[in-house]
Input
Amino acid sequence: MPKIFKNPAEMIAARNEWLGSGLTIGFVPTMGALHEGHEALIKQARSDNKIVVLSIFVNPTQFNQKEDFEKYPNTLENDIKIAESLGVDAVFTPQYHDIYPDNYRYVLAENEFSKKLCGKDRPGHFDGVLTIVMKLFNIVKPCKAYFGEKDFQQLELIKGMVSAFFMDLEIIPVAIVRESDGLAKSSRNVRLNADGRALAPKIYQIISNSKNTDLASEELTKAGFVVDYVTDIGNRRFVAVKTKLTHDGGEVRLIDNVKI
Output
């Protein structure tokens, strides 16, 4: 059973002991609702480090819509079982007041890439992401931290933050884990109803096979998605779409990316 730390003071005391003993710390920050994508991160961290720390905190400052935050799945008991099965040493589960004693008065922002793609129509989203990740890094003090390539924009922004602030840790990217039909693993997939789940794999199929972004956007719209964007940057194609084919009739937003 992993050790459960519920506040920063407990986590800091443990990490000081580990680092003082010369143990390397691998860190996997999550918002819970663990799936095979998270498991891939944990397995890589377990392979690389003496100590593996998993954090579970649904960060309200990165949600633009209160409804989306409130409907984010909470599966803490099952998440801890998964962590135990994968050999996680510690699970950090803080509350809002622990992480934001300033009530989010101090904010970390990036002024270029964070304004594009997912950031364009989600003002403040990446401010929330970078702020929480910086706080978690300062609390856990990992040697290596693991992030999935599904959230590729987030990955690039975190790598940039670590470089810009001369932070003494390594960011390890882990490849996207997909369902057998190509759908990228995501905690949001559980909100899809049967029709939504049948439709969702078309995201990967369309962006992988379309000759350009205009055609991809047109095909996604015809399939029934509301397209936020389809954009090529460098050798990678990024997509974000929405659908209301959910269990509760609310809207869910799905993202993906592929090399081109």
